[in-house]
Design goal:
This protein is of the alpha+beta class. It has 5 helices and 6 strands; from the N terminus they run αβββααβαββα. The protein has 3 domains: 44 residues, no CATH class; 36 residues, no CATH class; 85 residues, Aspartate Aminotransferase, domain 1 (Alpha-Beta Complex), CATH 3.90.1150.
């Protein structure tokens, strides 16, 4: 295959050959366990609402409030991405500033992993950064292989350069203390 387009065009056929091609079947869920599909009433045993909360009025109310609050931003996001390339570039710029400050390889996305090895080291580093006022997630097995636990830094357009430099300084201090 010579392009992503060629790959995408060929994928449905490859999935069908392996019996992995999915077909969308309209399903109306009208209670936590009851559905209607192709005009048939059915009891569903394939649903991700394990605690059966999606039909509770408070959950529905919260979903409506979230939609009202965030829908405009979600709708506007693609247009902003097209018309504001400088804004779109900011998260990667922040990640690269952080990586340079720590002499890490230049990242290709706004997510910068800092591999610390053992899960306990990642948890301790995350806790130390939290004490200093930084929320950074420790990623541990089984999400990553054994002895590759890490801190996961995610940079946004909202981080200013001073914040990025401060957290880099805090991380340098942690790395020195661990050595």
């Amino acid at each position: 295959m010579t392009s992503l387009d060629d790959f995408a065009r060929a994928r449905p056929g490859r999935l069908a050959v392996r019996s992995l091609k999915r077909t969308l079947v309209e399903t109306d869920r009208y209670s936590a366990t009851q559905v209607r599909r192709d005009g048939r009433e059915m009891i569903s045993f394939c649903y991700n609402d394990y605690l059966n909360l999606s039909h509770y009025p408070k959950v529905i109310e919260a979903a409506v409030a979230a939609t009202e609050r965030f829908a405009a931003a979600a709708i506007a996001a693609p247009e902003i991405m097209e018309t504001e390339p400088a804004l779109v570039a900011l998260p990667l710029q922040k990640a690269r500033l952080f990586a340079r400050a720590l002499k890490l390889p230049a990242p290709e996305s706004c997510v910068v992993p800092l591999i610390l090895g053992e899960a306990e080291a990642a948890l301790a580093a995350s806790a130390s950064l939290a004490e200093a006022g930084y929320l950074v997630t420790a990623i541990r097995p089984p999400t990553v292989p054994e002895r590759t636990a890490r801190l996961r830094f995610t940079f946004t357009a909202g981080h200013d350069d001073a914040e990025v430099e401060r957290i880099a300084k805090a991380v340098r201090g942690l790395v020195r203390a661990a050595a």
